[in-house]
Design goal:
The complex is a heterodimer of chains A (about 375) and B (about 300). Chain A has 17 helices and 4 strands. By secondary structure, chain A is mainly alpha-helical. Chain A folds into 2 domains: about 240 residues, no CATH class; about 110 residues, abc type-2 transporter like fold. Chain A has a 4-stranded mixed β-sheet, with helices on both faces. Chain A starts with a helix and ends with a helix. Chain B has 2 domains: about 220 residues, Rossmann fold, CATH 3.40.50.300; about 70 residues, Alpha-Beta Plaits (2-Layer Sandwich). The longest helix of chain B is centred in the middle third of the chain and has 16 residues. Classes of the chains: A mainly alpha (about 375), B alpha/beta (about 300). At the A-B interface, helix 1 and helix 11 of A face helix 2 and helix 3 of B.
Chain lengths: ~375, ~300
């Protein structure tokens, strides 16, 4: 079992790369599995700041500021009193104090940027946000006053714009698709199988197929059939390990409840077909790619594109009909459809079984086609080399 | 007979890489396959090992026809190619163990053979090193160890000393001689004539895929007219002197470049004495006189009309 053993010795050198993909998968799936999908929409709210304005100019601008920023914040007026302001900032009664110096109205009326000063809580992110908004407001204001619009009229226009509300509608499918913890966990499995499949198999096969090594191996007395059998065995053991890892992780995450869940065999079938797809991609990458960069490119492009468009990372309902139709050519799309069906399963009907098996055939079909295409490419390459 | 190649032809489209090549190598030889880059040496070796298909001809190793599935023949062959064929991810020991393991199943025997190979190439203190930590010369030694650990009867080395420092080169050449002393038949391809002269018992010179000369180094040198080349530094050289030198017996040609006179003589006695007498008569000051017997490069030059390293 020299080749079999060498496979894992080489793979051991790339455990860091493979571990990164495991870490990404586990982080994603654990976070998403544990997240309660119901809380997001109702907890959406806007943060507001406590802002004080010290108006030393006694002009129009202070009023405009209060009105504009008062829409979403608590804006009050106060006199310049250093001790009082410091106390208010220290006890977090105020987030930000804006000082409008004398002559500000006059500067603004000319369309020029005034020099304002401030006092704020150090290191406060909200203050930075307010300063950015204030800067934007001043730019708009000076743009208007610079074009001959009066300070009052410019202020009113900007406040009117600010009061227009953006309505946010939460898509109902965002929560529906998430299903229970197990369904959410299995949703991210394609990423693991594609990324770890391609890197773990591709990188090793690339080494075993390097021309010099391959020639030395072909000149040895080990029959080619035995070498191929050992490599196949190594890939299957690797794939089996991945499969077991996912199942064990599902058991751990569900606290063991998945073991008595009637959906488990169907989840297992669904991830098995995706595993074969991932392994076939790894075989393709290892036999066809010529460099590590090519393998890494294949890992990144395929895992992200297939998972993104297939609906693993983002609910496919977010995409337009055109994109969804294109996504149907990807096995990840059908994996996600299956995962949702299995997640929502109440009873095992004939239609359910038929749909799951039919849709699983897509991944299986892809795996076979990729395997066959790889063999054709390798054969053609060998013929041209000979 | 260890190797027998009959009428081998290998074409790449219109290019004939190996052209009706014939060769027989006896047991115990260190056989040199010498030729410039592109002369067909590596292609011949690849055909010999069934790594390449060929258009015509017949190849036998150990009296049996060589085929890609000739595993009973392959078990007694070791190859060391020009490019280092090891895994960057395995240590020196693991690499040798892996390639030896392709031949030897028995773990205890393999362990012994791997240890012997490490010791033979002088990598004992580097056994746990990864290849990228080895210098170019040590890497070549590892490459050799991977090819010989299973104690093959026939060892094929395809330009194993390319880009190797002189110290490692000498170590490698000495190692090849030692392997031969231990009973292995060696096929050694190179374009370095000095190496071939140094270690090979018989030599074939290849050009354009053909075997242009075959024999021991003395036999090859005897094939050509050149007897010796005499070089000397001259203070003065004119057309008159040139004509006088050319008129001496056995002179093949005369050249003068950068103050250095180079006269090629065919086989004959007292060539140097006659030349010195002539220069003395003409009262020409000379210095740094050097006489050189024919090299394999001279053989190649005379047969093909070009230098080995053209």
């Amino acid at each position: 079992m020299r080749v079999f053993k060498a496979y894992f010795l080489i793979l051991n050198k790339y455990k860091g790369t493979v571990f990164i993909f495991f870490a990404v998968f586990m982080s994603l799936s654990l976070i998403m599995a544990k997240v309660n999908g119901g809380g997001g929409a109702s907890s959406f709210q806007q943060d507001s700041l406590d802002i004080a304005v010290v108006d030393e100019d006694q002009g129009e601008f202070a009023g405009q500021i209060r009105e504009y920023f008062g829409t979403h914040n608590q804006v009050t007026e106060m006199k310049m009193d250093q001790d009082k302001i410091a106390d208010a900032l220290y006890w977090r009664k105020l987030d930000y104090v804006l000082v409008i110096p004398e002559g500000t109205d006059e500067v603004l009326s000319k369309g020029e940027m005034p020099e304002l000063s401030c006092m704020k809580v150090p290191g406060c992110f909200d203050s930075a946000y307010f300063e950015a908004a204030l800067q934007m407001y001043l730019q708009k204001m000076t743009a208007l006053t610079g074009n001959g619009i009066s300070l009052r009229e410019a202020g009113q226009k900007l406040t009117a714009l600010q009061k227009k509300e953006t309505k946010v509608h939460m898509a109902s499918f965002v929560n529906k698709r998430q299903g229970d913890m197990s369904t959410r966990f299995f949703l991210y499995v394609p990423y693991l199988f594609i990324a770890v499949g391609v890197s773990g198999i591709g990188l090793v096969l690339l080494r075993l197929n390097r021309r010099e090594v391959r020639e030395r191996t072909e000149c040895s007395s080990m029959p080619m059939k035995k070498r191929v059998a050992e490599i196949t065995a190594a890939v299957l053991v690797y794939g089996g390990g991945l499969y077991l890892f996912v199942l064990v992780a599902a058991v751990v995450i569900s606290g063991g409840s998945i073991l008595t869940d009637p959906r488990l065999p169907w989840f297992a079938v669904n991830i098995f077909t995706m595993l074969l797809f991932g392994l076939s991609l790894g075989f393709f990458a290892g036999m066809v790619a010529k460099t590590d960069d090519a393998i890494n490119g294949i890992v990144n492009v395929l895992s992200l594109v297939l998972c993104f468009l297939g609906g693993v990372f983002v609910p496919r309902q977010f995409f337009g009909a055109g994109v969804q139709n294109v996504a149907k050519i990807f096995p990840t799309y059908w994996y996600v459809v299956n995962n949702e069906s299995i997640g929502a399963m109440k009873t095992v009907s004939h239609t359910f079984v038929k749909n799951i098996l039919t849709q699983s055939m897509v991944s299986l079909g892809y795996a076979l086609v990729i395997f066959a295409v790889t063999l054709v490419i390798v054969s053609a390459r060998r013929t041209s080399e000979a | 007979m260890v190797v027998k190649i009959e009428n081998l032809v290998k074409r790449y489209g219109d290019l004939v890489a190996v052209d009706h090549f014939n060769l027989e190598i006896e047991e115990g030889e260190i056989f040199g396959l010498l030729g410039p880059n592109g002369s067909g040496k590596s292609t011949t070796i690849h055909c010999l090992l069934s790594l390449l298909t060929y258009d015509k001809g017949h190849i036998e190793i150990f009296g049996k026809e060589m085929t890609p599935t000739g595993y009973d023949i392959k078990k007694d062959i070791g190859i060391i190619m020009q490019n280092v064929a090891v895994f960057e991810e395995l240590t020196v020991y693991e690499n040798i163990d892996y390639f030896c393991g392709l031949y030897i199943k028995n773990k205890a025997e393999r362990k012994r053979l791997v240890e012997e190979a490490i010791d033979f190439v002088g990598l004992t203190e580097y056994r746990k090193f990864y290849p990228k930590k080895l210098s170019g010369g040590l890497l070549r030694r590892l490459n050799i160890a991977c090819g010989i650990a299973h104690k093959p009867k026939l060892i094929i080395l395809d330009e194993p000393t390319v880009a190797v420092d002189p110290q490692s080169r000498n170590k490698i050449l000495e190692g090849i001689r030692e392997l031969n002393r231990q009973g292995a038949t060696i096929i050694y391809t190179t374009h370095y004539m000095e190496e071939v002269e140094q270690i090979c018992t018989r030599i074939a010179i290849m050009d354009k895929g053909r075997n242009v000369a075959l024999g021991t180094k003395d036999e090859l040198k005897a094939m050509i007219d050149l007897g010796e080349t005499i070089q000397m530094e001259l203070s003065d050289f004119s057309e008159e002197i040139s004509d006088a030198v050319r008129a001496l017996p056995h002179v093949i040609n005369v050249s003068f470049e950068n103050g250095l006179l180079k006269v090629r003589f065919s086989k004959g006695k007292h060539n140097l004495l006659r030349l010195l007498d002539l220069l003395k008569d003409k009262e020409i000051v000379f210095g740094n006189v050097h006489s050189e017997l024919p090299t394999l490069n001279d053989v190649f030059l005379e047969i093909t009309g070009k230098e080995l390293r053209d």
